[in-house]
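#dry-run=false #mode=assembly
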Amino acid sequence: MKVGAVIREGIWERNPVFVLFLGLCPVLAVTTSLKNGVGMACAATAVLICTNTIISAMRKIIPAEIRIPCFIVIIATFVTLVDLVMKAYTPALNEALGIFIPLIVVNCIILGRAEAFASKNSPGMAVGDAIGIGLGFLIALVIVSGVREILGAGQIWGVNIFPQAFYDKVFAPIGVMVQAPGAFLALGCLLALFAHMDNRRVRCEREEAALPWVDTMDEILRKVPEKKKKKKEE
Amino acid sequence: MALDKLVVGHSPHIKSDESIRRIMWTVVLALTPAGVFGIIIFGWYALVMMLGSMAVCIATEWIILKLTGRDAGQAFDGSAAITGMLFAMVCGPLVHWYVWVVGSIVAIAVFKHAFGGLGCNIWNPALMARAFTLAAWGKDLTQGFVYPDGTAGATPLGVVKLAKEGVPIDTEYLGLNELFWGKTAGCIGETSAALLLLGGIFLIVLKYVDWRMPLSFILTCVVLVWILPYKNKAAQDIASGWVWWKEPLFAAFSGGLFLGAFFMATDMVTTPVTKTGQVIFGVGCGILTAIIRLYGGYPEGVCYSIIIMNTATPLIDRFTRPRKFGAKEYARTTS
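#status=ok
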């Protein structure tokens, strides 16, 4: 396997949010605006790249029995680093993300990649995996937080899309989308959309490969009335 | 030829003329008096809202049925129309146009069809749309009520809420007479207890609604509001200790209790099937409504109480499953 393939897989086929359903807590909680989403993704990616590298390099000396505590210590170290750096250079963002920066320690993407990938592969591959998964996480957070910010606040990156008078007089932004229920609604709708796209892609691939297409239950149900009609006509 | 007419199949074998279309449009008919009254006291915008919401709901349903390759004619079976009408009736008379347009779309697209469409939705779509719009545009739904004479005012329960906070009250539109006939402030469809009662009795006579459900709901709520202690002295007449808003009839006629009890807690899809289950559902709604009214942050709790009990409906159905004919003991745990 090549590093390029690992990166590509992390972005799409193994997208941590839309495919693996990992790290949903920050996805739901901090995606109230694009800025927060990107900040969160960058912090998590920085931690992921560092931990993947270190854990991969140390994979032969970490005893299998206590690997999880070892991983957690390494992860916690880097999270503390990132937390302090953010406090120093981006205090506003740190304030907005709040508890979710320290909580990267228990983010299942980080520990999941450490356990599933970094502890079994060379450091080079592990960095590739971290970059791919990190980009996938970034893309997911940008999509979710973008949708929520546009619908819920009528803004992109904190800038109004329409003049304020439009929001006052014609259409006020759907405030609920930047609150907690909006996170679930937005994520649910996006997951449905991606599942739909994926189904379509699989179907196209099968048709290209001329494989027999197995009807889904929906299609069978749809065909029954058609067959009945044909019988009646006969 | 004769053999073609013999149908072999599962029960039920007794068939009647009742259809979804007929039941649903009858419910719309039963709602009409209260809706017309809403137009009379709140003006033509109420009519625009009700017809508009119905149209948006039906159009949304039609588009979704078309996109998913089902029979788009189902959009006209009346269930979407009821959702639209009920949603408009639980909105204040002054809400912006986008509140009812987006609310109607969300009711059908998210809270009905995301779960599989008619018969599969967990919550009452109209109430979920109200909860959604309340969270989205809170000011639109919690303020902007008017009295029939056109002056701005609060709903009866809103006045109670203000009274609890120590705001002096104006009882001109709070008499039992005004509340019963509907000459007070409130959502478009909730003001007239009399006309809602009329529609409700019409449905009960036609047996589309079982009387146990609304009765248990209203009784529980009224009794609990009456007997539960409330310590805030600001909202009561200090001289006599009489708490005017805890009067049973005031509790019954104010807010959306009749609308909720007759038309929303009786929705066939989202409420229990058996009679016992319906009583449990009604009592649960009553308890929650009373608790929210007395101690909650919102003045009215009918909407949330029904939504919460809708969530519990599968559980209630499971524990009130009727005994099979001939069976002595049935397993409650098998799914």
